[in-house]
Amino acid sequence: MDIDGAVTLMPDRSGPQSPPPAQAAPDGLDQFRASLTDWLSANLTPEVVASGRGGLVVAETIEILRAWNRTLADAGWAAISWPAVYGGRDATVAEQLAFHEVMTEAQAPGPVNAIGVANIAPAIMAFGTSEQKDRYLAPMLRGDEIWCQGMSEPDAGSDLASLKTSAVADNDGFVVNGQKTWNSLGQFADWCQLYVRTDPSVPKHKGITCLLVDMRSAGVEVRPVRTMAGDSSFSEIFLTDVWVPNTALLGSIHQGWRVAMTTLSHERAGVARLHLGLTARFNELLDDARSAGVVATPVQRDRLARLFAYISTMRWMTTRELEAIGGGGQPSPAMGSVAKLMWAQATQELADLAVGLLGTGALAGPWTKNLAAAPAVSIAGGTSEINRNIVAEHGLGLPR
Ligand SMILES: Cc1cc2nc3c(=O)[nH]c(=O)nc-3n(C[C@H](O)[C@H](O)[C@H](O)COP(=O)(O)OP(=O)(O)OC[C@H]3O[C@@H](n4cnc5c(N)ncnc54)[C@H](O)[C@@H]3O)c2cc1C
């Protein structure tokens, strides 16, 4: 038995099964897709595609991806969901979805400064002073200044509010001491959105402050962390008597928890990237297996079919959600957690299945590296256990 039975199950990415959500006129949306497709044909190089593969940013690829970030920004494609006044396009949900579909199809990486663009910029837009918006947003959009997020500490991850890094008022600023860890892009970052404790005498959620810290400040030491996949894409950050000016305060003092919990991302269709990325990798696996002449066992065929059904479910769930939001509805409670949980599970299953299916042939491609990197996806950005808690409490209304 070969894998052809599974191959015929390949998702139809363009067919009538996945209508674009309502909101933008179809003509406008077609034009939008065509203009991005044309622009990618003229600008996307194989080197950029190869550097973006796998989604990890490492020393060998950072400068290529940074240059690509600038190219995207200068053409208005780095953050289409940002308000136009800050360099975005005020894109509708339908346009955001179309953007992710075209980018995934072309294997085009997004901006390398993803944490800044998707997570930190919305907080600066919501809580920043006009000086902060003028100073930080434009270089962030181009990737001229890379940002990292300093939340987790050795003893504060899921329970972020127990963070201990301290900031004590001093002259016109603060003196910061402590340690952060698992900081994605930390070794490349020019700036850090840092969460610190400014009042240890009040309940833990109430004494936290958010600071925008120059990573070149005296007393900042960055140590890259090497993972079992062999890469260093995140770091530990040690802060020793680092002086930070008052102008670095994002929001009010002791109100950092509000900043951290305000998830104001403008990118409503970002969730679609999860099933789009999985579909692309699922298809890559089928292509690799086919060209290697792999003969799948019945169990492997069954797992492939189940994975395909799982990814299809993600696609339908996301499409339904985005159609509702595009029509003016509110996001479903815990939708982000459900999508993250399903993505983590499918990513790990795909990585495991690929190595089993390709055997020693997997050593030549990205698949063994994928397998080593896969455990991280159920930890980063909130663990699967924490997401299950959120689904139970906020989605199903179960008691804590
Ligand atoms: C690839 C990657 C990138 C990351 N990037 C960043 C970054 O850029 N910036 C940053 O600040 N951090 C980053 N992190 C850190 C990440 O946010 C934390 O690892 C995560 O929040 C979990 O915290 P922890 O590792 O301390 O585990 P812990 O919180 O100590 O959890 C240990 C285990 O206990 C479980 N657990 C904890 N609490 C509960 C509970 N209430 N109910 C049930 N189970 C529970 C967890 O699910 C987990 O299995 C990154 C992590 C990874 C893997």
Overall description:
The structure is a single chain. Helix 3 (46-52) crosses helix 4 (62-74), helix 9 (272-291) runs antiparallel to helix 10 (298-326) and helix 10 runs antiparallel to helix 11. 40% of the residues are buried. The chain has helices at 4-7, 26-43, 46-52, 62-74, 93-105, 114-127, 130-142, 256-261, 272-291, 298-326, 335-358, 367-373, 384-395, and strands at 147-150, 166-170, 173-184, 191-197, 208-214, 220-225, 234-245, 249-250. The N and C termini lie far apart (49 Å). Residues 1-22 have low confidence and may be disordered. The strands form 2 sheets. A 4-stranded mixed beta sheet has the order 1-4-5-8. It has a 4-stranded antiparallel beta sheet with strand order 2-3-7-6, with no helix packed on it. The protein is an alpha+beta fold and 400 residues long. The chain folds into 2 domains: 4-107 and 266-395, Butyryl-CoA Dehydrogenase, subunit A, domain 3 (Up-down Bundle), CATH 1.20.140.10; 147-259, Butyryl-CoA Dehydrogenase, subunit A, domain 2 (Beta Barrel), CATH 2.40.110.10. Strand 2 (166-170) and strand 3 form a beta hairpin. It is globular.
